[in-house]
Design brief:
Number of strands: 18
Low-confidence stretches: 1-17
Largest sheet: 6 strands, antiparallel
Mean pLDDT: 81
Distance between the termini: 49 Å
CATH topology of the largest domain: ABC transporter transmembrane region fold
Shape: rod-shaped
Length: about 700
């Protein structure tokens, strides 16, 4: 599944895996379904307002800017045609005082059935000349216009539009005051809609960001929790760089998807659907002409999605590979500089970086083709509308406002399709990240907890191995039928050559791994029948490689266990002989420690780990090579601490320095995963076996 540096190899999961992704993410969205619904409602309202704006433009042009009336000679039509006209015009046909003439507004004439309109124009029923309607008040103020005017039933009159050209600009504005007022109203409504749309958009973006942050916070916490619950075998196989990438970069990609795609995809769907409905309402013939390219557009979009999918997967794999490489090399920078391999590492990184560059360019090429193609389709559709719709406007079968609205809606129609590039970018990055996150969540290498954990009656640190066998890999066993006992209060040491299995014994006692065969008892209970928290609180482990977290000294000792009393903390520090160097620090226990304890010596870090183990007052203390990397003075302090602790604790010591365990009650000698010898120092030396040879080798 993963390559050398922990990146997901191409094509392992396949498209069949995709249908599970969103379903697996669904439980994280359920707690926020009310917020999602609220964001969806705001999105719907914002979409409706956005769709209204071009229609307001149409109203402004047709009703007010191009306000005029067409004359219809009603003497040339029968009663049936008159009724049909009234039906088409919704009873908005103005009649002359004598009833011989009718007037149809520029806006309403487009609602007449085109076939009927063609007949009426052909029969000269509807004339080409245009008129402007003057109210009774204006009629009295401009009596000179009555010469060629036609009087209406309610006192108004229709003036030939050409007569207005002879008036002064001020008089024209006065006559058209109602149109100017209408334009002002449309402008105010437009401004109000923009303000409301702004606040709806603000609420929508805020809710989407809030939902995305909360969901990704939950997923990141759950992923970290699952990582912590995994057995050590999980971390043996997964590099740190890969794990960090999952919890940071991949989770952030999900956040982008939730806030940028989750609801806005629905918004795009609403916009596209709304535009299709409005265009059909405005003029279904022109709408069908505009829709001619839609199948081709969606075909190109599907082809693009397929190409972009592969490009994104490859890019994410290369990014993960580069992150893992960088993490390993930065962590091992001391070794790189020590052996002077900077040039080799630079060449290796250059190769990985070039692979990432090629994957990025592949992605860019996909989008570089898609975006211009979408722009070309958009421009071609607008040109088609201008050609076909413009002819309809000239033939007065379509209003100019409707044509302008058509162009605006078509440009709006292509906006979500163009946005698919960005959203598909985010979606594919999120899907690739989700694959990796779910891949990790599905891996269950946890040490199983007992259904009904048992607690020992007393905590004495009584340890017993019974015929224990174990191997990190099935084909390579490390321990073979190991049996021994550490009685309460005893100090038992384990020695042996490198690879004998000493550290594996410690791992099994701490239950980092479970034995393949046999059982391990602590205080008379199988450790598999005890909860891991209770078991590990009974055992104090001091390792050779001490890990120090950045933070204060007290935080490194307690590790978040604030319930420990000040007295218990002070006692553990004194028993570990760490009080001397802590008191010498400027801030004492509150002294800030840099990453990995870089501002502490190796001996100080070791004493600090001693205090950390003792802070929990364990019944069994395990020292795994605890003195192998310290100076003689610190070793003396540790020996004094061990002497204090073994008076009331069971102690198991794993040591390379045989001088540190000569006073042990019993020494176990391991060789090739078996206990070959055991006894006191003097007994083993007298035996002249493996222990004797180890001592002689150390002396040499």
């Amino acid at each position: 599944m993963y390559g050398e540096y922990g990146y997901m190899e191409e094509g392992k999961l396949g498209k069949a895996y995709d249908h599970r992704l969103l379903r697996r993410l669904a439980p994280y969205t359920f707690p926020y379904k009310k917020l999602v619904i609220s964001a969806l409602m705001l999105t719907l309202m914002t979409t409706l307002l956005d769709l209204t704006l071009p229609y307001l433009t149409k109203i402004a042009i047709d009703r007010y800017i191009l306000s005029s009336w067409y004359r219809a000679d009603l003497t040339k039509v029968d009663e049936t045609t008159k009724r049909e006209l009234r039906k088409n015009l919704e009873n908005k046909l103005e009649k002359s005082a004598d009833g011989s003439q009718g007037f149809i507004s520029h806006e309403m004439i487009k609602k007449i059935d085109p076939a009927l309109l063609y007949q009426l124009r052909n029969r000269k029923v509807i004339q080409d000349d245009r008129f402007y309607k003057l109210t009774p008040a204006l009629r009295k103020e401009f009596p000179g216009l009555e010469k060629q005017a036609i009087h209406l039933e309610h006192g108004s009159m229709m003036v030939p539009l050409g007569d207005l050209d002879s008036l002064k600009p001020g008089d024209v504005l006065k006559i058209r005051g109602k149109d100017l007022q209408g334009l002002s109203q449309v402008g105010m409504v437009l401004l109000a809609f923009l303000l409301v749309s702004f606040w709806f958009g603000y609420g929508e973006n805020y809710l989407l960001e809030l939902i995305g942050q909360r969901i990704t916070q939950d997923i990141r916490l759950d992923l970290f929790r699952r990582m912590q619950s995994q057995g050590l075998s999980f971390f043996d196989r997964h590099p740190v760089g890969r794990l960090v990438t999952r919890v940071t970069n991949d989770i952030e990609n999900l956040n982008e998807m939730f806030k940028s795609v989750m609801v806005t995809v629905l918004k795009d769907f609403f916009i596209l659907t709304g535009i299709l409905v409005i265009l059909l309402y405005l003029n279904w013939r022109l709408a069908l002409v505009s829709f001619a390219l839609i199948p081709l557009i969606f075909g190109v979009a599907l082809l693009f999605s397929s190409m972009a999918r592969d490009a994104f997967r490859e890019l994410r794999a290369k990014v993960a590979k580069m992150n893992a490489f960088l993490q390993e090399r930065i962590a091992g920078m001391r070794i790189i500089q020590l052996f002077g391999t900077e040039k080799f590492q630079e060449e290796s990184f250059a190769e990985i970086n070039h692979e990432n560059y090629l994957a990025g360019m592949k992605q860019i090429r996909v989008f570089a083709i898609f975006m211009p193609v979408m722009d070309l389709f958009s421009s071609f559709t607008v040109a088609l509308i201008i050609w076909y719709g413009g002819g309809k406007v000239i033939g007065e079968q379509l209003s100019l406002g409707s044509l302008v609205a058509f162009i605006s809606y078509i440009q709006m129609f292509f906006r979500p399709i163009r946005d698919i590039s960005e959203k598909y970018n985010i979606m594919q990055a999120a899907m690739a990240s989700t694959e990796r996150i779910i891949e990790f969540m599905d891996q269950k290498e946890e040490i199983p907890e007992p259904e009904a954990p048992l607690k020992p009656a007393k905590h004495e640190g009584h340890l017993e191995f019974r015929n224990v066998s174990f191997g990190y890999h099935r084909d390579h066993p490390v321990l073979h039928d190991v049996s021994f006992e550490v009685k309460p209060g005893e100090m038992v040491a384990i020695v042996g050559a490198t690879g004998a299995g000493k550290t594996t014994v410690v791992n099994l006692i701490e239950r980092f791994y479970d034995a393949a065969e046999g059982i391990i008892l602590l205080d008379g209970r199988d450790i598999r029948q005890r909860s891991q928290e209770e078991l590990r609180s009974s055992i104090g482990l001091v390792m050779q490689d001490v890990f120090i977290f950045s933070g204060s000294l007290v935080d490194n000792i307690l590790l978040g266990e604030e319930r420990r009393s000040v007295e218990a903390l002070d006692e553990s520090i004194k028993q570990a002989n760490a009080d001397r160097f802590i008191q010498a620090l400027p801030a004492g226990l509150n002294q800030e420690i840099s990453e990995e304890g870089a501002n502490l010596s190796a001996g100080e870090r070791q004493l600090l780990s001693f205090a950390r183990a003792l802070a929990y007052d364990p019944s069994l203390l395990i020292l795994d090579e605890a003195t192998s990397s310290v100076d003689p003075e610190t070793e003396r302090l540790i020996q004094e601490a061990i002497f204090k602790m073994t008076k009331r604790r069971t102690t198991l010591v794993v040591a390379h320095r045989l001088s540190t365990i000569r006073g042990a009650d019993r020494i176990l000698v391991m060789h090739h995963g078996r206990i070959r010898e055991q006894g006191t120092h003097d007994e083993l030396m007298a035996l002249g076996g493996i222990y004797y040879k180890l001592n002689r080798f150390r002396e040499v």
